[in-house]
Amino acid sequence: MSDFVKGLAGIVAAETNMSFIDGQKGILEYVGIPIGELASKGTFEESVYLLWNQKLPTRAELDAFNAQIRGYHDLPAGMANRLISLPMQAHPMHVLRTMISALSMHDPDPNNIELDAVRDKAMKILSRAPTLIAYFDRYRRGLPLIHPHKELSFAGNFLYMLNGVAPTEAMTRAFDICMITHADHGLNNSTFAARVVISTLSDLYSALTAAIGSLRGPLHGGANEGVMRMLNEIPSVDEVEPYILGKLERKEKIMGFGHRVYKNVDPRATELKTLARQLAEDTGNMELYEKSNAIEQVMEKAVAAKGIYPNVDFYSATTYHCIGLSLDLFTPMFALSRIAGWSGHILEQLEDNRLYRPAAEYVGPHDVPYTPIDQR
Ligand code: ACO
Fold it and tell me: Which of 19, 105, 154, 294 could potentially form a cystine with 184 if both were Cys, beta carbons 3.0 to 4.6 Å apart?
């Protein structure tokens, strides 16, 4: 036998109605709508509705959907106390993973995987995740917790809970675009993890917990934090070229570049680059943007021939920094949005389930005699 494909590259392992990716042409669509269209004209809430229902909502449908999301922001009794008993130095991704898992213990019927039940649970988790993250961030900064603002959008409410003041329209819009661009992306590693877990007919909480664990890795969503660390390490725009070429010579990966599927420009990076530039200008962070742009130029000359371009994580780092988020909140922001995609895939998996159970090719020895312990 040898159908072995390392990393399952190019293997089609599921069908989806949600996102379409053409990695050669640099196309991403949600239910057929190009990501650029949604980012420039839509909202995160509309995008989630689209992904979960395969159609854009009417005004009445969107109002009802928004009311549902806003109605679930509060945490179950006792959750806030649990959050403020966590070690302050814990990474917010570990906190998010643990607290999403903990939400299952506040659900009287956590194992129910009927589609309507899962949909309702997914809505609650999507709605409560921003509260979990904002509460933890306020607690570790020694600030009073700010309760959800039910008149604000998903993006506006999160920034409000984090900062204690209503965000500007521009900041809310910028954050909303980040949420839209990260919501779904085919059978990426964390989505696959979620589908693998739910395929055993386990529960939504377990599947999402696995997905968050996967996303945290630096080869996946954790790369956005790595990008910011790299930007902080490079003292100035003039130092970009030797820094990047040095890393490439040492065969080190440049965080925020390369993708398993895109061998051309990642359209999410294009959207986020424009946004990062605007925000950097508005917030006095142009040096950060210029360093990012210079890294892109150096990489273009050095490795574009190999099909390595900026991915979604590259300009999201500058964007999140300009929005005022601390570095360790970057990956949780990705998770916040991707809960929409993971949940949609979990629903799709449950609608037409078959247990994931690939094979491993055994490459060890055979017929080995058993050696008694004192003769080894
Ligand atoms: N910097 C430098 N070289 C790179 C990079 C990079 N970021 N990415 C790929 N390469 C090179 C590899 O060294 C390899 O070169 P070689 O053929 O000379 O050995 C070649 O390109 C192919 O790379 P692989 O790692 O084999 O590609 P794969 O499809 O397995 O990996 C991955 C994709 C993991 C995203 C990779 O590009 C990477 O590690 N990038 C950096 C981390 C990152 O930004 N991850 C976020 C991805 S987007 C997302 O998950 C949300």
Answer: 19
The per-residue pLDDT for range 54-110, each reduced to its tens digit, is 999 999 999 999 999 999 999 999 999 999 999 999 999 999 999 999 999 999 999
Per-residue model confidence (pLDDT) at position 107:
97
Q: 14: CA distance to ligand 1 center in Å? A: 23
Architecture of domain 223-323: Orthogonal Bundle (1.10)
d(CA 33, CA 333): 23
CA 299–ligand 1 middle distance (angstroms): 13
Active site residue 91: no
Instruction: Decide: helix, strand or coil at residue 225.
Output: helix
pTM: 0.97
Q: Where are the domains of the chain?
A: 223-323
The type of residue at 133 is: I
- Residue numbers of the chain with a pLDDT score lower than 70: 1
Q: Work out the burial of residue 94: count CB atoms within 10 Å of its CB; fewer than 13 is exposed, 13-18 middle, 19 or more buried.
A: middle
Measured CA to CA in angstroms, residue 179 lies from 182, 225, 281, 312, 360 at distances of 5, 16, 21, 12, 37
CA quadruple 52, 56, 61, 65: dihedral positive or negative? positive
The 10s digit of each residue's pLDDT in 312-356 is: 999 999 999 999 999 999 999 999 999 999 999 999 999 999 999
Angle at 90 (CA atoms; ends 89, 91), nearest 5 degrees? 115
